[in-house]
Structures are given as structure tokens and as C-alpha cells.
């Protein structure tokens, strides 16, 4: 490519705006097209690299200074733009703030004394996916259920303390705990609060487990402590309760004692299958409280020494997660392979589900839009419900937008139609974008798929997330049905539109179309009702014939003045309409009813010019009548003679002959009388 051609391929940073705020500085970068960028930061500077972009050097910003930023330095290198921002005081933190304009990149810079922050090298436009996924991934942890097996209370012990019905109730509560129904278990065990001390102690420990299962850690801690106060040695005999108590301690702020209890349990379980999952729990506590290196060391130990177990898979997942939001864009397939290995290895459904979600998440953040969409859609189809289903459905919607933009820009109408049909339940964000539904409709029309458009739009019109597109969808279905000759479908859809959207502007066109059908069926009353809006000055009819139907309907209702006006408006706009001759005749009739013979005469004269046969003879006869009425017998005779000369046996020729003979007799009689 020539240098000029290469320059045309580049984006351009056109201008820059800096605004200091309380606690942060915002830098707006305005580009000619959506930028392809990477953002990173160290303790004392932020660097933004925008690929395949040129820019002015913005030298005046080099001396800029505020409480956080010490200048902005722009340079050109490797075919792109580098923007370096020194940050005062260390601990630079930078993030991109999304907005409605894809060509605007807004950097928010603040300081954090805790250390460095790195913005993931995601593709432009994927910020919403990153935000939602990062929040979910950070929130998802190990199940609150104990890693050690659940041991029910000995029924013999309970029978010594409780009645038969109370024993059954207590065991039912433990069954609920076993199957994970924490809320139901709380309701059961709170019923034992007034029992003897030994029972209250057992119920307190079980209540602590039930609260822990719901992540109600403060309440769980209080219940455990009540149990310990009543039966101090019980925890030593129930390892699974000790584990949950240790984790509740750590989660509520006493991580030292919580870690100590877990370390003790790990020692007691050395050589058993439970040692590895307990080490994972301890690693999570360490990581949660900032001891990242110790946590990573424990995860590596579990992955190495418990290979082939679910605990090893969980440890490998935690290690892979460390890179999930830090890798460079081009390296995501390598991390994807690690998650695929976790998915393929032994493990529970929850672990496999999480691995599969992250396999789909990686291309959604870092990969081409079409590949990312396929990956997320596959996950959505395989796992429509579950902990990740909500975020996946949002990702599905967000990834449809860039794929739609690519197809629209390439003018790939067939591809766009297929895309929307394949992902019809994920179109909410696309439908919210201005111009999308019109572009999709044009693609259906360009590919000759009107029947498919009707079916597809009918489906969309019933979805709650269709937004403001409902009127367009139904109106378009009407047009398609008329184009395909399916008058019944067109009529039913138009009536459906008017029922749902009675005040929508597109409804006027549909009323006109329905009025035509009513008129053709002879239902002039309904035609009049549908076209009632034409009595006002606005809106004007979209179809000129609507004024004709309205005029005829008004005439049928006896409104001669309104009918004459409507017919006149049609005549002015009719052009070469086949209805024009009848419109003149109808207008003349209404003018006669309004006692306007000259106006009626003019209308008949216009009709006579564009008619032939009996209609022409009718016009000539009526013209003669009106001339005679206006006191011009010679003109009347000329008109009747013209009708008679046409010959034939039609009724209008006969009437003209009789009228002409009568006129001549009266004229002759008048001469004789003189």
C-alpha cells in the first residue's frame, strides 16, 4: 500500500480534554473512530497505547499539573500513539469509563497507596462484560458447605433428651442441612431454644451450620458461640462443625483464630482425602485477607500433591484466575487451555460449570467478536440456568452488537438476517440501538424473505424486551402481508396494531389501508370511522385514494359539504387514478345537493373529458340538465345532441333524446306564441 493509502487506514486522536475532580482526574480522548487500545499503570505513571492511530503531539498538555497528574506526554511510535501520564504520590490507578460514544475514551486517574493497578488488555467495547464478569468471578468462592462429611446426631442420644415427635423434627432439620436447605433448617432448630441445656447446645451448633450455609456469618458466629458455651467440648468431636466455625471466625474478622483452627484440622486430617480441600479453604482465607503469596503456595501444593482430585482442580482454577484479567490480549488461548484441562479433569458439576464459563469468558473479553459470540451462545444453550446464566445472557446480548456492526458495515444482508434468527432471544441491546430494527428489516427485504420477516417480527413483537420497536414491527408485518397478497393477515395485524398503539403515528397509514378494505366490502360506516382523522387539517392522508373513500363515506352518511370537500382534495392529488372519473361524478352530485348548479356543471364537464361509453353519455345528459336549469337552453340542446349522436340503446341516450325533443317542442311553441 502507498503511504497515502496507509494513512487512510489509520485512526486519529483529534483532541484531548482534561478535567480535575475531587479525588480523581478525568482525561477525555476524542478519536475519529473507536480506538483499539491497551492501558497499563505502575506506581508512578499511566500509559495508554492506541494501535494504528496518529495524533498531534499536544505539547501544551506536557506542563499540565493538578493534585494527581504531572503532565500528559503524547508520542508516535510503532504505528500508534503512546500517551504517558506521570502520577504524583505513587499508587497510580487508571480505568476506562464507558459512555454512549464509542469514539470517546475517558480515562479516570486516581492514586492508591497500596500499589500498582493494571487495566486488562481487553478489546474496545468489552468494558461492560469485564465489569460484570469481574464482579461475579470475585464473588464466587468455595461452597459454604463443609469440606468434611456431614455426620448426623446419634438418634439414641436424641431419644434420651426429646420426645419421639421432637426427635423426628430434629432429624428432619439435619436432613435439610444435608441437602443444603439452610433457611428451612433455621426454622427447625430455632424451635429448640427453650429445651434443656444439652438440646440447646446441639441445636445451637446446627443453627450455626444453617446460618453459615446461607452466608449469614454474624448470626452463625453467635449460634456457634452459644453452643460452645453450653457444650465446650462438642466441637472436638465434630470436625465439620469446627471447620465451619473456623471459616465463620475468619469471615467475621478473627482470621488469626480461624486460620489456627483450620491449620489444626489439616494436621488432624493429614493423609486423608480431606486434607487437600481443607488446604484450599485455608488458602482462600489467606487470599481474602491479603496474604496472596501464602495462598498461591498452598494452591500449588494442592495441585501438585493431590493431582487428579477435585481439590486439585479447584486449586488449579484459583491459580488460573490470577491471570484471568491480567493477560495480554493475544495470549488468552493459552489460559483457555488451562481451563479446558480443569473442565476435562475429575471434579464436581460446580467446578466444571465454572471452568466452562471462563472458557467462554476469555474470548468475550479478548477475542474476535464472532468467535466470542459463538462461545458464549454455546454456553448459554448448554446451561440456560445456573450461577453464571444471568451474566452469560448479558454477555450474549453485548457481543451481538459488535457482530451486528461488522455485518452491517460489510452490507452482508443474508448474514445479518441469519445472525438475528440464530440469536433471537438475545437481541435486547441490539433493539435498543437506534436504526437497528430498520436495518434488519431492510436486510429481510433485500434477501426477499418477507414471509420469514413476518414470522420473526411476530415473535419479537410479543417479547417484553422489545422496547419501543413494537409499532415498527407490527406496521412492517402489515406491509409484508400486503406485498405477499395475504390480505387477511394484513388486516388482522393492522387491527392488532391499532388496539395496542391507538395513538401511534404509524396508525394513520394503517387506518387508511383498513378503510380501503372496508370500502371495498361495502362497509362505508366503518370506512368513515377509520378515516375520521381526515376531518382535521393534519395529518394529510398518505394515500390520495383515502380522501375518495372518505368522501364517498361522508356522502353515504348525508354530510354533503364534507363529502364535497374530501372529493375535491382527492381530485387535486389523484393524478391519473382510475377513481378520478367517479370522483368528479360524486363531487357533482354533492354540489347539486348543496344547491350549487354551476359547481356541479364544472364537475360534470371535467368528468366528460375523461370518460367514454355510458358514463360519458351520463355526463352529457347531466350537463344539459344543468344548462337548462341555468337558463341556457341552446347549450343544453348541444349537450343532449352530442349524447344522441353517440347512438346506442343506453338509458342516458334515451333520456337525452326525450329531453331534446321536449326542449325543441317547447322552443317551437314559444315561437308560435310570439
Automatic annotation (TrEMBL):
GO-annotated biological processes: cell division; protein ubiquitination
Keyword rRNA processing part of the UniProt annotation: no
Keywords attached to this entry: TPR repeat
SMART domains: TPR
Transmembrane segments: none
Highest taxon in the source lineage: Bacteria
One Pfam family named in its UniProt record: TPR_16
Start and stop residues of the TPR repeats: 201-234
InterPro entries attached to this UniProt entry: TPR-like_helical_dom_sf, TPR_rpt
This protein's record includes keyword Ubl conjugation: no
Identification of the protein by name: Tetratricopeptide repeat protein
Organism listed in the record: Citrifermentans bremense
Taxon lineage: Bacteria, Pseudomonadati, Thermodesulfobacteriota, Desulfuromonadia, Geobacterales
Amino acid at each position: 500500500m502507498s503511504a497515502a493509502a496507509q494513512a487512510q487506514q489509520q485512526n486519529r486522536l483529534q483532541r484531548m480534554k482534561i478535567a480535575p475532580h475531587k479525588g480523581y482526574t478525568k482525561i477525555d480522548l476524542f478519536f475519529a473512530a473507536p480506538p483499539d487500545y491497551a492501558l497499563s499503570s505502575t506506581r508512578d505513571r499511566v500509559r495508554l497505547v492506541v494501535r494504528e492511530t496518529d495524533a498531534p503531539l499536544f505539547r501544551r498538555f506536557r506542563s499540565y499539573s493538578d493534585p494527581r497528574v504531572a503532565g500528559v506526554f503524547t508520542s508516535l511510535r510503532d504505528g500508534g500513539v503512546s500517551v504517558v501520564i506521570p502520577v504524583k504520590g505513587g499508587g497510580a490507578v487508571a480505568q476506562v469509563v464507558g459512555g454512549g460514544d464509542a469514539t470517546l475514551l475517558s480515562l479516570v486517574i486516581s492514586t492508591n497507596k497500596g500499589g500498582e493497578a493494571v487495566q486488562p488488555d481487553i478489546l474496545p467495547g468489552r468494558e461492560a462484560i469485564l465489569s460484570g464478569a469481574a464482579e461475579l468471578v470475585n464473588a464466587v468462592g468455595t461452597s459454604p458447605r463443609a469440606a468434611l462429611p456431614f455426620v448426623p446426631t446419634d438418634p439414641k442420644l436424641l431419644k434420651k433428651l426429646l420426645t419421639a415427635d421432637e426427635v423426628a423434627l430434629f432429624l428432619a432439620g439435619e436432613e435439610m442441612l444435608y441437602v443444603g436447605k439452610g433457611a428451612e433448617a433455621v426454622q427447625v432448630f430455632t424451635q429448640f431454644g427453650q429445651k434443656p441445656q444439652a438440646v440447646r447446645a446441639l441445636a445451637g451448633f446446627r443453627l450455626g451450620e444453617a446460618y453459615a450455609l446461607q452466608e449469614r456469618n454474624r448470626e452463625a458466629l453467635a449460634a456457634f458461640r452459644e453452643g460452645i458455651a453450653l457444650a465446650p467440648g462438642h466441637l472436638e468431636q465434630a470436625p465439620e462443625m469446627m471447620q465451619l466455625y473456623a471459616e465463620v471466625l475468619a469471615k467475621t474478622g478473627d482470621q488469626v483464630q480461624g486460620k489456627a483452627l483450620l491449620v489444626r484440622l489439616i494436621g488432624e486430617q493429614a493423609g486423608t482425602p480431606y486434607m487437600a480441600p481443607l488446604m484450599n479453604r485455608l488458602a482462600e482465607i489467606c487470599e481474602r485477607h491479603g496474604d496472596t503469596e501464602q495462598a498461591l503456595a498452598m494452591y500449588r501444593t494442592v495441585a501438585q500433591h493431590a493431582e487428579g482430585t477435585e481439590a486439585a482442580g479447584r486449586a488449579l482454577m484459583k491459580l488460573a484466575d490470577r491471570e484471568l484479567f491480567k493477560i495480554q490480549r493475544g495470549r488468552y488461548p493459552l489460559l483457555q487451555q488451562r481451563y479446558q484441562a480443569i473442565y476435562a479433569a475429575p471434579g464436581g458439576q460446580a467446578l466444571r460449570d465454572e471452568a466452562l464459563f471462563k472458557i467462554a469468558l476469555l474470548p468475550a473479553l479478548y477475542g474476535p467478536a464472532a468467535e466470542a459470540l459463538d462461545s458464549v451462545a454455546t454456553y448459554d444453550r448448554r446451561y440456560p440456568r445456573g450461577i453464571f446464566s444471568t451474566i452469560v445472557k448479558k454477555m450474549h446480548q453485548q457481543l451481538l452488537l459488535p457482530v451486528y456492526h461488522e455485518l452491517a458495515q460489510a452490507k452482508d444482508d443474508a448474514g445479518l438476517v441469519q445472525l438475528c434468527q440464530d440469536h433471537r432471544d438475545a437481541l435486547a441491546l441490539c433493539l435498543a440501538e437506534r436504526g437497528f430494527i430498520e436495518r434488519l428489516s431492510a436486510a429481510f427485504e433485500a434477501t426477499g424473505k418477507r414471509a420469514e420477516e413476518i414470522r420473526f417480527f411476530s415473535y419479537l413483537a410479543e417479547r417484553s424486551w422489545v422496547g419501543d420497536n413494537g409499532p415498527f414491527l407490527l406496521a412492517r408485518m402489515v406491509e409484508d402481508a400486503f406485498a405477499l397478497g395475504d390480505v387477511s393477515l394484513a388486516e388482522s395485524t393492522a387491527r392488532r396494531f391499532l388496539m395496542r398503539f391507538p395513538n401511534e403515528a404509524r396508525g394513520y397509514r394503517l387506518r387508511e389501508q383498513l378503510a380501503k378494505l372496508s370500502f371495498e366490502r361495502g362497509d362505508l360506516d366503518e370506512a368513515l370511522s377509520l378515516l375520521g382523522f381526515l376531518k382535521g387539517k393534519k395529518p394529510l392522508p398518505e394515500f390520495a385514494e383515502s380522501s375518495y373513500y372518505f368522501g364517498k363515506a361522508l356522502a353515504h352518511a348525508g354530510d354533503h359539504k364534507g363529502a364535497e370537500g374530501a372529493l375535491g382534495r382527492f381530485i387535486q392529488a389523484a393524478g391519473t387514478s382510475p377513481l378520478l372519473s367517479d370522483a368528479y361524478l360524486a363531487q357533482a352530485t354533492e354540489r347539486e345537493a348543496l344547491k350549487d348548479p354551476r359547481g356541479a356543471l364544472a364537475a360534470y364537464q371535467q368528468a366528460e373529458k375523461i370518460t367514454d361509453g355510458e358514463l360519458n353519455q351520463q355526463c352529457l345528459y347531466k350537463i344539459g340538465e344543468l344548462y337548462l336549469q341555468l337558463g341556457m337552453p341552446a347549450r343544453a340542446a348541444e349537450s343532449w345532441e352530442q349524447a344522441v349522436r353517440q347512438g346506442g340503446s343506453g338509458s342516458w341516450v334515451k333520456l337525452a333524446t326525450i329531453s331534446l325533443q321536449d326542449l325543441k317542442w317547447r322552443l317551437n311553441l314559444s315561437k308560435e306564441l310570439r
